[in-house]
Target: Deacetylase sirtuin-type domain-containing protein
Amino acid sequence: MQTPLRRMRIPYTSPLPPPLIHPRSANTAPGAAAAVATFLASAPSPHLQPTPGTYKTISPQKTVLLTGAGISVASGLADYRGTAGTYTLNKTYRPIYYAEFTANHEARKRYWARSFLGWTTLHRSRPNATHAAIADLAELGFVSSVITQNVDSFHRAAHPHLSTLELHGYLRATVCLTCRTEYPRDQFQERLAALNPAWASFLEDALESDALETENPDERRAKGLRTNPDGDVDLPDAPYSTFRYPPCPHCLADPALKVEADADGAWAPYSEGGVLKPAVVMFGESIKPEVKSAAEHAVDEAGRILVLGSSLATYSAWRLVKRARDRGMPIGVLNLGGVRGEESFLEDVIGTGSRGETGVRASESTEKVLPMVVQRLRSEGKGSHS
Ligand SMILES: [Zn+2]
Model:
């Protein structure tokens, strides 16, 4: 039995094991690309178990992709645990927890102030070579769907026709904790700017100085600003308590609710509800049951799983790979650095002579390797549209 805590999104703090490499030739980017290409183009595994329940393995020849923060680093966003990751560089960084956000007005001010500063960078950043390669692989007929832990909406932008399940929600909207109405984050940004003119001019200056504009995380850090994977910015000693945020317009207009705003339209602390939250699954918050089962469905309808840029540190992602393993699906992992539980995921294939048919593990960057995989598969005439 799982405890309720284990179903929540929680940071994983134990050390990760050193990366395994399999097959041995996958220790360079071209070698990894060859192994991943073999993995994707192989016949379905004879060990694939039928799925219990109602789901059917609709596409045993296709691969479901599970992506994490590592694939968005090339778009200028930090990841959590990479060499320039938020947890690696900033030991004191602590993401906001759901319970804190829902209960504490001060915590919300701090969250929204940081989010206000980080939004422009996130909003201007674009999908990168990894996302483009995923679109190509889908076009070639190798991918059944994508499950992502990322909240940056890059997958939808890069491949709108390939099904993407956003396991941890998305930053492009806010959601009301009382009435569950969603609003575009863009419009919310304008409301935040109007309510916080001093912060808005600080942001303007920061944007003008290119501190937020640069794609180079080192330069950005040198200018004292850092965008975290959840789209916010670190600003030591900022007067967060001065920040103001608006209530849900729908709840504010409902006379039956005690949701109030001050003269400027900022959420009044004596309100009961009408609080807007980013439409992401915060740490300590449970994933919606329908999202959880859709993710399981996405795993069950594919014949193999390829993890891209994730250390599987969150339980929800780790569980999906375990599910794939329990079903006898070949597992591929392309991630710089260690991955939680990788010895057990790959124990059956490590040491075998496979060229990648039964499993791949490489510690290389996806934006380097995945376009090479596409090129290889195309030149070999593999795939349905080649
Ligand atoms: Zn509402």
Observations:
- The two ends are 46 Å apart (CA to CA).
- The mean pLDDT is 87.
